[in-house]
Amino acid sequence: MIITEGLATWLGGAGWNESFEEALKKTSKVLKRHKNVTIDDIINFKIRNEFDNSIISATGGMICKLVYEKHGADGIIKLISTKQENFKPILENLFDLSYIEIEELIIDKILLSDQS
Fold first, then answer.
1. Beta partners for 18?
2. pLDDT for 78-94, tens place per residue?
3. Three-state SS letters, the chain
4. Which terminus has fewer CB within 10 Å in the chain: N or C?
């Protein structure tokens, strides 16, 4: 879900006339209220909004954006073709980093998105 929702958010915005960048800023503000946020916290809805999936969508959008910047469309195809149980190893392969480093990179990019 994080990748399919994320891809749609990255490409088309979060909805209700909200851009991907605006969704990232809102997500950043929510994540700053928590300590040691992980992607698993987001995937498992430990950290979420009450009425929408914007946190998981914005996070997935950031993952898609970073994969695209590194690997182009081929990276996105690998990402969306991944089964849930292969999610972490595929990310490690695409980023050439450990999963913990990937989490830190993604969360840091989101946290910095509301600084203008």
1. 15
2. 999 988 788 999 999 99
3. CHHHHHHHHHHHCCECCECHHHHHHHHHHHHCCCCCCCHHHHHCCCCCCCCCCHHHHHHHHHHHHHHHHHHHHHHHHHHHCCCHHHHHHHHHHHHCCCHHHHHHHHHHHHHHHHCC
4. C
Please name the residues in contact with 6: beta carbons below 8 A apart, sequence gap of 6 or more: 56, 57, 58, 59, 60, 61, 62, 63, 64
Domain of 70, in residue numbers: 2-114
User: Using one digit for the tens of pLDDT, what is the confidence trace for 31-88?
Assistant: 999 999 999 999 998 988 776 778 999 999 999 999 999 999 999 999 999 887 889 9
Give CA–CA dist 58/6, Å, rounded. Answer: 6
Closest CA to 30 of 59, 8, 3: 59
pLDDT of residue 116: 56
Taking Cα atoms as reference points, which of 72, 26, 33, 32 lies closest to residue 53? Answer: 26
Task: Please compute the mean of the pLDDT values over residues 91-110 and round it to a whole number.
Answer: 96
